[in-house]
């Protein structure tokens, strides 16, 4: 009798902890790697039965607790880090309440892998913002990709929800998810030396130290807040990849963007300009030293100007510089980068050129100085 009372008290404490908001810091969300397991009494095989059975999370629908190396038929279900992950069946969801600073911007990074369904998606929500992230394209040989998503906190406590809208009749064909982390995004700033904001891409989503494949920034609507703010990704279903110096070769600083989806994806930023004034856009294009070899071409657009920068990659790192000089024709100029080729690594995963160290300056002062001399 006493043992039953003690177990009930422990389970009640877990429920209350799940309902309470967690004090947030940059890094892994509370039990963001799902290593804190549900009580065995709350598992029916792999299915999680209790709404608050997974510590710090609330679930709805058919949710499974998956161990590393577990099989589904002949298919091995991998886990990217640690021993456990979670699988969401059709219309299933998992959520966590987190304490934030109202009005601040945040990015969420998490890892996902599709299983037997082919066109899987995940709906991520922090009310009132909600987006569908396409996860059908696999960019790693392991099958796991890390995704990022950003939002503005409209309250001091928010509910972060991940929902599987369902594309398969079999609930056991839903996507696997793991490794949830959060990062505060400071407001990007321009300077007199660079009219672009975040031109070196140092401001971006959280990258896990033990995941060498970078973080995908998925396509977004123009009114969405970007994890690479104020850079946006324009595409129907494809992403760009945010890479770091510990795992890749980057031309400048600690971060860069790899254009992994060819002509299907554009990286863009709108910048304030003065019509009639001359400008110069400069950038680095190269490879990330990740085995992505072959002919690469980055096409850049700014105003009515454009340039193609070819780069012959050996897959070992390196870069070249490209530049455009143009005259602004509007109060706002869109800067665009596109990879003009589709590149693949030897194992068949998508890759592409990296873009970094992007700057935009008005050259009117420089022209005036030359005239005076």
Automatic annotation (TrEMBL):
Which spans are transmembrane here? none
Which Pfam families does this chain map to? DUF642
Query: InterPro entries given for it?
Result: DGR2-like_dom, Galactose-bd-like_sf, Pectin_Meth_Modulator
Identify the species of origin. Panicum hallii
Q: Which UniProt keywords apply?
A: Cell wall, Glycoprotein, Secreted, Signal
Q: What protein name applies here?
A: DUF642 domain-containing protein
Q: Where in the cell is it found?
A: Secreted, Cell wall
Main subcellular location of this protein, as a coarse class: secreted
The signal peptide here is 1-23
Gene3D superfamilies of this UniProt entry? Galactose-binding domain-like (2.60.120.260)
DUF642 domain sequence ranges: 27-183, 194-360
């Amino acid at each position: 009798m006493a043992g039953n009372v003690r177990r009930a008290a422990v389970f009640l404490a877990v429920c209350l902890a799940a309902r309470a908001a967690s004090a947030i810091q940059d890094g892994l969300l509370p039990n963001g790697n799902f290593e804190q397991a549900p009580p065995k009494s709350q598992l029916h095989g792999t299915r999680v039965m209790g709404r608050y059975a997974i510590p710090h999370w609330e679930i709805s629908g058919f949710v499974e607790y998956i161990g590393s190396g577990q099989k589904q038929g002949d298919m091995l279900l991998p886990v990217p880090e640690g021993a456990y992950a979670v699988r969401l069946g059709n219309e299933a969801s998992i959520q966590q309440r987190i304490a934030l600073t109202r009005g601040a911007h945040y990015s969420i990074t998490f890892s996902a892998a599709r299983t037997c369904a082919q066109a899987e998606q995940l709906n991520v929500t922090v009310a009132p913002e909600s987006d569908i992230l396409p996860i059908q394209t696999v960019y790693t040989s392991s099958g796991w990709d890390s995704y990022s998503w950003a939002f503005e906190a409209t309250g001091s406590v928010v509910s972060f929800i991940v929902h599987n809208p369902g594309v398969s009749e079999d609930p056991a064909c839903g996507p696997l998810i793991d490794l949830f982390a959060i990062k505060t995004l400071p407001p990007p700033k321009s300077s007199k030396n660079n009219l672009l904001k975040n031109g070196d891409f140092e401001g971006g989503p959280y990258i896990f130290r033990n995941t060498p494949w970078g973080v995908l920034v998925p396509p977004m609507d123009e009114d969405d807040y970007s994890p690479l703010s104020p850079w946006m990704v324009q595409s129907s279903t494809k992403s760009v990849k945010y890479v770091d110096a510990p795992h890749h070769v980057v031309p400048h600083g600690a971060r860069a963007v790899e254009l992994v989806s060819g002509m299907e994806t554009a990286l863009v930023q709108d910048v304030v300009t003065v019509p009639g004034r001359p400008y110069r856009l400069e950038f680095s294009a190269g490879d990330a030293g990740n085995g992505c070899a072959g002919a690469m071409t980055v096409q850049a657009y700014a105003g009515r100007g454009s340039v193609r920068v070819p780069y012959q990659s050996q897959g070992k790192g390196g870069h070249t510089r490209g530049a455009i000089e143009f005259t602004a024709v509007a109060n706002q100029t869109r800067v665009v980068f596109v990879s003009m080729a589709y590149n693949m690594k030897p194992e068949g995963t998508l890759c592409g050129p990296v873009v970094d160290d992007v700057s935009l300056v008005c050259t009117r002062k420089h022209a005036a100085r030359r005239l005076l001399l």
